[in-house]
Design brief:
This protein is mainly alpha-helical. The protein has 21 helices and six strands. About 50% of the residues lie in helices and about 5% in strands. The protein has a two-stranded antiparallel sheet with strand order 1-2. The chain has a two-stranded antiparallel sheet with strand order 3-4. Strands 5-6 form a two-stranded antiparallel ribbon. Strand 3 and strand 4 form a beta hairpin. Helix 4 crosses helix 7, helix 4 packs parallel to helix 15 and helix 10 packs across helix 14.
Amino acid sequence: MWKLKIAEGGPWLITGNNYVGRQHWEFDPDAGTPEERAHVEQLRRQFSQNRFRIKQSADLLMILQLRKENENRRGEIVAPFKVKEREEIKKEGLIKTLKRGLSFFSSIQAHDGHWPAESAGPLFFIPPMVIALYVTGALPEVLGPEHQKEIIRYTYNHQNDDGGWGLHIEGPSTMFGSTLNYITLRLLGEGLDDSHNSALARARKWILDHGGAIGVPSWGKFWLSVLGVYEWSGCNPLPPELWLLPKLSPIHPGKLLCYSRGSYTPMSYLYGKKFVGRISSLVQSLRQELYTDPYYQINWNLARGNVIKEDVCHTHPWLQDILWGFLQHVGEPIFSCWPFSMVREKALKVAMEHLHYEDENSKYICIGNASKAAAMIACWLEDRNSQAFNLHLARIPDYFWVAEDGLKVQGFGSQSWDVAFAVQAVISCNLTEENLSTLRRAHDFLKASQVRENPSGNFAKMYRHISKGAWTFSTQDHGWQVSDCTAEALEAALLLSEMSPSLVGERMETECFYDAVNVILSLQ
């Protein structure tokens, strides 16, 4: 049975606040009673049976666990207050309903003060992680049989009726979602003749009916190239040499949005290296399964601009296509030959400096799961026995979430964001006396989750901003300051500071309030 672990560490993990806010799932074969296990299986069957009608899980596994763990510190859930269809809603009914909601909400609060929750939905989160683990040979180490079983369950549960997968669980089928999720299932051992109502065979039919994986968009082309089921010559260039441009250049990576830069940096490194994983028999089989033409007869240069209409968000400007063509046919041959290859080596070195800096300042959580998967491969490629690679592996479970629909890879969590709004909501109900223990735990979480230091070293040189005093979207260890998260957490902390410390704990230090205001003003 799967168990949600809260604020727990482990080997190769680094933390700045004793792991407060960390949430990860572990499989314990001895956990739960026979009745509880049967109930979990029933919930899984119910989701699968209704998966086309209700596509989002309800976090029922988490709720079952937390309500059981909180039995000793919570009261009974207030009985529902029912009104007839045309009956006037009075103050008494409103208060009882608020009390019922708050009593349930308190029953699913974790012991460190936050409310664990899923932050998933996109269907391109799992595949890069699985591909990264496969090409580095770490898949069996990180994904045990139960992990693989639940990822497979999740992937099948969110397959569309036409056989494909969308960009997210509510979306129509796309080549991006279909190709990556098909590959994920194959890498996890699923065969074309397996059951699940011929799900893989139907998925392959969708891919081939839409022209094959040659029509996957840019990120799909990138990950397929890393795996070895697509050629780098069919990708639009991701030159690491952009790092060597003058800082005043309008296209310098330092000017990119942090999420874009976080993805570009490791992806440009792998592109510059033209890294391809081991061509196993499974990879060779995928080369045959995913295309309508024989693999070695595909015109990869034409494939660069081939994206099926289901995946096109907007067409490229002609100038962008000309630039990409120039980089592909002129830039790449030049940087592949000496002495210009020395420029590429320098660019790759700079890219890795930035990559390591971001890894270290996020405790190897990284700014997001897609950038983490690419960064992990880059660290392994640089040194297969490196400390950095092991530190990356240790943080992968931070991205896992298990629910009745299976195991998914989520965003980096919304712990601080959720607590900030929860505190404000509880206080606004004017029912604080009945929820003091809930507020005290939330207060402790907010104080422990505030970022207390700026990024290390000369952070301006690494295109980072001050973070001392900020709150992140998730945990302190993540490290990336967010203006609205800081503002909402600050408001919550200010509201709590107006209450007696004997009720909700000691108020946050005055300097910490000033630091938070300083961050907010600096981001205006």
